[in-house]
What does this fold into?
Amino acid sequence: MRRAWSRLGLHGRIALSIVAVVLAGIGLAILAVRREVGEVIGAVLLGGAIGLAAALIAGRLLEEAYSRQRQFVSDASHELRTPLTAIRGQLEVLARSGSADPAEVGRVADLALAETARIERLIEDLLTLARIDEEAPLRHEEIDLRSLLAQLAEDPSLGGVATGALPDGTLDADPERLTQVVRNLLVNARRHAGPNGQVEISARAAGERVTVTIDDDGPGIPPAERERVFDRFQRSDASRERAGGGSGLGLAIARSIVELHGGRIWVADSPLGGARVAFELDGFEPQAGSA
It folds into this structure.
């Protein structure tokens, strides 16, 4: 129930609460037109009770929505402040020392550039989440799934991703957002597997449903954390995530996009020894003649 409410978003929850109050009023009006005094009194009491309950629910939903919004803003502010503090601290040290050593100046410049890139990634992720929360419409196309997954696996920035079985066929989905889901999961897997670790992507189809899996041989994700890793700014290992440039939003974005498509996403143990993150979508059409 709580997950269903959370998926509605702030505007959806407010609208649903208003609808509940309106329906209560309509029910009261219908009952009130009856001539019997007892039924009118009963209608008033029932309508009042329903209206009060709806108002209480609306108030609680608004309070919860604003609380989540405040927490999100607080988390985002902290994530933005951290790299800015690092940049400022290094610049102040350099200024106080008065060092003209090119090596020291270069070190500070490299750190500033890395932290600036981190800020840019965080802002991009925040904008993506904002667009998803506003329920921007999906741009559905017929996507060659094998080609898309194979192309992403060949991205040199991911340090080599193996491909398992990939089905032939097309998937009805938003290509840009589906690409972002897979890329986020591959980046997450590579970060935890390490530069020399194993990462593998595969997929299997069953009728119109396809499941895409990303495996790694990293430390894995404990069962108690497997749901929480999809929360915004949640990290299973904060120090490693921060060191690797992660914002804690990659898996949250992936889940939001998958659910926007009507699918689901989850974490399990990987046969490689680490974590498996898989997502499932409908709308797959196998290629004619394929097994």
